Amino acid sequence: MTATEHAIELTITAARAASEKKAGHILAFDVSDQLAITDAFVLASAPNERQVQSIVDEVELKLRDLGSKPLRREGHKEGRWVLLDYGEIVVHVQHEEERQFYALERLWRDCPSITLPADVVSEG
């Protein structure tokens, strides 16, 4: 099983939104073979809580423009690791310290990467 076209569209939109707010190390994985609850993960990071919040706000805005609202949102108040669950995709925006400590990309490295377009620029 692979991620649906709609999940890929949401993934690319979320990655672009993160890029617009200067997110670092933006990656996307197709986790549909490993998890029954979602198709894709988007990972992004920022050096401080304010930027984490800014990235999250932009992702929510751009996905809302596509008619998607998060089913669940966790960690927004603290701004260290915000999880946005859209059902088909889950967006993780982490402070750089949390990103290094939890290393989600190592946990999911066996899953295929989703190729992001060239206009998704990953800072840092």
UniProtKB/TrEMBL annotation:
<dbReference type="GO" id="GO:0090071">
    <property type="term" value="P:negative regulation of ribosome biogenesis"/>
</dbReference>
<comment type="subunit">
    <text>Interacts with ribosomal protein uL14 (rplN).</text>
</comment>
<keyword id="KW-0963">Cytoplasm</keyword>
<dbReference type="InterPro" id="IPR004394">
    <property type="entry name" value="Iojap/RsfS/C7orf30"/>
</dbReference>
<keyword id="KW-0810">Translation regulation</keyword>
<dbReference type="GO" id="GO:0005737">
    <property type="term" value="C:cytoplasm"/>
</dbReference>
<comment type="function">
    <text>Functions as a ribosomal silencing factor. Interacts with ribosomal protein uL14 (rplN), blocking formation of intersubunit bridge B8. Prevents association of the 30S and 50S ribosomal subunits and the formation of functional ribosomes, thus repressing translation.</text>
</comment>
<protein>
    <recommendedName>
        <fullName>Ribosomal silencing factor RsfS</fullName>
    </recommendedName>
</protein>
<dbReference type="GO" id="GO:0017148">
    <property type="term" value="P:negative regulation of translation"/>
</dbReference>
<dbReference type="GO" id="GO:0043023">
    <property type="term" value="F:ribosomal large subunit binding"/>
</dbReference>
<dbReference type="InterPro" id="IPR043519">
    <property type="entry name" value="NT_sf"/>
</dbReference>
<keyword id="KW-0678">Repressor</keyword>
<dbReference type="Pfam" id="PF02410">
    <property type="entry name" value="RsfS"/>
</dbReference>
<dbReference type="GO" id="GO:0042256">
    <property type="term" value="P:cytosolic ribosome assembly"/>
</dbReference>
<comment type="similarity">
    <text>Belongs to the Iojap/RsfS family.</text>
</comment>
